[in-house]
Amino acid sequence: MVTSTFVYDGDCAFCTRCAQFVERRIPTGAQVVPWQFADLAALRLTADECAEAVQWAGADGSRAAGPDAIARLLAGSSAPWRLAGAVLRLPPVRAAAWPLYRWVARNRHRMPGGTAACAVPTAPRD
Description:
four-stranded mixed sheet; 6 helices; globular; alpha+beta; single chain
């Protein structure tokens, strides 16, 4: 059975803590995996995409990044989380979510649980 996959940066302590929260508190049928251990080719993702933002690779072939990926993850969960995902997809909320997501991504090393290793690299990864 093919399942949807939510991909995050496993090198980032803040991202890992968020993913652990998802695994503990948000019931979803999706796999939640760090991109460093995912089969990116099978998911049709690149390392650069995954370093830039969390990614959603849907079992139906759909793809999404950043807050759109989070909304897709929440859409497959229980009622309160599905509602949060639906709100995140509303055009005005989605428009505000992207700049906020980018700010968090740029500052994730300053977030609770973050470390210097969490900083988004300024040079492309090999």
